[in-house]
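Minutes, project check-in
Item: structure for the 234-residue chain
Input as provided by the requester:
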Amino acid sequence: MSKVVLVTGASSGIGAATARHLAAAGHRVVAGARRAERLAELAEPFIDVHPLDVTSLDSVRAFVDAAVGRHGRVDVLVNNAGVMPLSPLADLRVDEWNQMIDVNLRGVLHGIAAVLPLMRAQGGGHIVNVSSVSGHRVDPTAAVYSATKFAVRAVSEGLRQENTDIRVTVVSPGFTESELSDRGGAAAAQAAARAAAEQLAIPASAIAEAIGFAVDQPSNVDVNELVVRPTAQT
């Protein structure tokens, strides 16, 4: 059955791959991101694009309202937007810590706040939150990033337990082809992440397919958590 699916952080990486994969499967996708020029590359018959800043609740609500105005409902929200400026805590990159909290955690909460009343009124829906393998373990230079991703898992489990008619899925990717290590952070930490990704990373389409698997289950089947990582990742 075709669903109306919203995808945040859709201008590149997992978000773009997910939008394309779900559209190819016949779903109606509304893709949102801040980078309008990159987002425009996604536009096609089954993908609508809309500017989105997940750190702004007003922006997220406008994104959801646009989808409802166009399609009449929202069946699935994929909370994917994220940033990963890695650095040792001793660097005291407080602005980057706050950015990770704002995008990775507050952005997820904004998405939930914008769609939960609608999904409850509809009598069902599905929220997919993209966490990370870093939400299961902590590595040097990734303490704050891991903290936000652990928090996404905690929020997701609470949301799942509080709702019996809304499905909640956490997807935790390992090393995946993306632009996460290209911006911000300590130069050495980001270079190390890029080097590891070059050796290990799986394509973003692998995560998109995992999300598609969860989305396409029957309404009484809730795939609660998927960890998807390269075979060679320890």
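Outcome recorded: Strands lie at 4-7, 28-33, 47-51, 76-79, 125-130, 166-173, 225-228.
No further action items on this chain.
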